[in-house]
Amino acid sequence: MYKLAHRILNKLNPEFAHNLSIRGLKLGLYPKIRFQNTEILEQTIWGRRFQTPIGLSAGFDKNAEVIKPILNLGFSFTELGTVTPKAQFGNPKPRIHRFNDQQALVNSLGFNNKGMQIFEENIINSNIKENFQDKIVGINIGNNKDTQEIIEDLELLFNRLHRLGDYVVINLSSPNTPGLRDNLRSVNFDKIVNHIHRLRDKNHSKIPILFKISPDISDQEKKDIALISLANDIDGLILTNTSIDKSFLNSNLKGGISGRPLFLKSNKIIRDFYTLTSGKIKIIGVGGIFDANDILIKMKLGASLVQVYSSFTLEGPYHIKKLTTDLISLIHQQGYRNISEVIGQNS
């Protein structure tokens, strides 16, 4: 039944299909996935135990509406958002385009979400800590489109939401909010990192703070970000967001591309940052993961965790179960005692 439903959804307009999926998940229309013997995939990172390295990236559950269903589908962790202080519609439709032959999506959504108040209420009402003590929840925050000073929005969001998650992500890399990626330039990035860290201290918090990075940065920008990250002892980097390089599509569509075409580009950046930081900064690898071997490749290049999105939407609700069981088999076949042993082997 669920496989048939997924095939039907893949025939529909992508954004309509996504909204329908969210509605179905909220109604409990999904298979409940259970695992046994995943100890070989377990890691403790930032003082938190991740049952597997496989999480859902930000962008799917923008308003924290389906936390329980997502975690019941087999994800070890889910990242909520991106949420902005005020609700916003985002960019004009149509703004999601599916390319099945290339296993790719192009989106120009523009941080469409219902705002931090509804986001906060949804997390509180989900009772995550009571229902999912063994799962991890991240909160991805960003600025409204009309905001003049990004730090003001980030401060509002951090102060209000940081107590509700296991880690916080500062999204500086979406290509769909004008000027956002300018904050990855060294002076701007350093200013934001320092401000957010001071904000955490002011709140007497120890929550890990991660920064989501663009795949389209230059080699010099990589070096600058790596140096600032090391100097400020940041907790982690998410590598990477979507790319504006859509040359292979021969299309002038606006927005960022995700899925298989992002795989090699994000892999290179994972390797570069792992090398530039000597493996001292934790990395979550994102981009083009469709099977268990893709996960191992990203982890061997330096990622400690991975996130999927496009393959989950293209492959359906049993995808995470298959990724997990196949990953367990691969780790056994290659003679590792734990998944953590593979990190950075090929960097």
What is the CA-CA span between the terminal residues? 43 Å
How much helicity do the residues have?
25-40%
Cα gyration radius (Å): 19 Å
Q: Give the topology string: H per helix, E per strand.
A: HHEEEHEEEHHEHEHEHEEHEHEHH
Number of strands: 13
Lateral strand order in the biggest sheet: 3-4-7-8-9-10-12-13
Throw out a few tags for this protein:
alpha/beta
Descriptive account of the structure:
This protein has 347 residues and is of the alpha/beta class. Helices cover 37% and strands 16% of the residues. It is built from twelve helices and 13 strands. It has an eight-stranded parallel barrel with strand order 3-4-7-8-9-10-12-13, surrounded by four helices. A three-stranded antiparallel sheet has the order 5-6-11, with no helix packed on it. It is globular. It starts with a helix and ends in a 14-residue tail after the last helix.
Protein topology:
Elements: H1 2-9, H2 14-26, E1 43-45, E2 48-50, E3 54-56, H3 67-72, E4 77-83, E5 96-99, E6 104-107, H4 116-126, H5 128-131, E7 136-141, H6 150-161, E8 167-171, H7 186-202, E9 209-213, H8 219-231, E10 236-239, E11 256-259, H9 263-276, E12 282-286, H10 292-301, E13 305-308, H11 310-315, H12 319-333
Parallel strand pairs: 3-4, 3-13, 4-7, 7-8, 8-9, 9-10, 10-12, 12-13
Antiparallel strand pairs: 1-2, 5-6, 6-11
Helix pairs in contact: 6-7, 7-8, 8-9, 9-10, 10-12
